[in-house]
Design a protein that fits this description.
In chain A, 49% of the residues lie in helices and 12% in strands. The first copy, chain A, is of the alpha/beta class and 297 residues long. In chain A, the strands form 2 sheets. In chain A, strands 3-2-1-4-5 form a 5-stranded parallel sheet, sandwiched between helices. A 3-stranded mixed sheet of chain A has the order 6-7-8, with helices on one face.
Amino acid sequence: MTVSSEGKRPILKRVCVIGLGLMGGSLALALRRSGVVEHIVGCGREALLRRAKEMGAIDSGLVDAAESVAECDFVFLCTPVETSIGLLARIAPMLRPSALVSDVGSTKNALATAAREIFGASAGERVLPGHPLAGSEVSGLEHASADLYTDCIWVLTPLDGEAGDELIASHRTLRAALEAIGARVIFSTPEEHDRTLAYTSHLPQMLSTALALTLEEAFGGGSPALEIHAGGLKSMLRLAGSDPVMWEQVAASNRANIAEALERLEGELRKLRESLGSVEFRKKFEQAKEFAKFVKQ
Amino acid sequence: MTVSSEGKRPILKRVCVIGLGLMGGSLALALRRSGVVEHIVGCGREALLRRAKEMGAIDSGLVDAAESVAECDFVFLCTPVETSIGLLARIAPMLRPSALVSDVGSTKNALATAAREIFGASAGERVLPGHPLAGSEVSGLEHASADLYTDCIWVLTPLDGEAGDELIASHRTLRAALEAIGARVIFSTPEEHDRTLAYTSHLPQMLSTALALTLEEAFGGGSPALEIHAGGLKSMLRLAGSDPVMWEQVAASNRANIAEALERLEGELRKLRESLGSVEFRKKFEQAKEFAKFVKQ
């Protein structure tokens, strides 16, 4: 592979994108637009491959994942996290020894563990798990956009914990390609990533879903009562529209961290409920208001 | 008072707005712009009165609430709900017999009860509680805008349960003035309003505040971990920036309904936590996704 990013020359020769939904479709479109890839192989169902070709997202396509990775320098697994783990085992025997596998899954620990089981001591070289923080409550190739990753934080979690100047050549090339499509690459470990995301991403999702379930139980869908709300309800229910299959897999692959975050939050809700309208209640609100300033709107 | 709304003639002669924060300031600005009021008296601290006059929101101002309502046809209480209840008792002796008092508080039952205690059998004529669903996580006169109530739902909750054609003249005039500033007026009862809002407004607020408290406990403010999130966190934390004093009073005046809503939600969170990543979990997510479609984004 060519590692130079000088001029306009492609830095990735042949890339495989497995899974052509919102994430994979957008990645293919963004790589294409940036001009850093010579050839993109897509992998997915026939109808998706056809559509992705029409959109100009891929150059060629194959239904079989193991076949699709042959001759590729970079492989992106763009399926829900447990699906990606299964795929990693299936494509492993067909990968070129120099090929690098990455992914876009919402959790990183489970994939890292699987990579170590499959590749042993060379896992850190062969697999570099990643997570672009660009999810959305919509899904599917029809919503894919070359802009999805513009200015988005893309976390890379090297298995051996290296970062910055320590990166091996293929890892540096991956980072350069991601930066070429507009992402802001940062480094973490799989463990730290999953614990943080349990609080900053998975917990908000659980809240939004639980709010929807509570409102449905109280009023049922389509009740006129649901018209009586300020803007707050909409913003709190937006995430509830997210893909159930993706979230089933996120939850399964980060169970302990999410359970801990949920227990803490249930405790905070109980304290608010037991102090409704008291001075202690107001102090909690003041504390929360101060904290909220740290997450810029 | 003049009840005709034909042509451009004002339909309200002299209006008093007590409380010149976001809600009261915006109401004064919107009434002024719509041309339906001849004279607006403001009531608030000296500095606020000065500022409101500079902004063109009020024509005259008084610090004392009881003095400010003399000679007025309409009085709007635009303070947090428990403050408004105290003010209602204080201004009652000074009100003209034909004057109508309304408010913009987040709960309606407590004010309705106070009105019945103060005015007895004529409470339904003298007080028409209202609630514009136009709250915001910002507060204060500096954020006031003549546009705050444009297209916003404004719930009126007549104490005697009348609505539509049954309204007495002063109630019809109030409705016409609110429609003149762009609000969409709907009718409810104080009891129904408070129960509904516990779920559609107060519950989302509690969730956002509890999420902020949980994240602070886990990371502390300003932690780099807080940079690692997708857009979902921001939308879920927006409400946590709301005014603590206002919410202390909302919670105190709607305790039973909010406690019920919170208990149900805590139950849903517990069920999600106990089924993380299972088929049952996915079914919950599918149910929530279906429901979320009913609240248009």
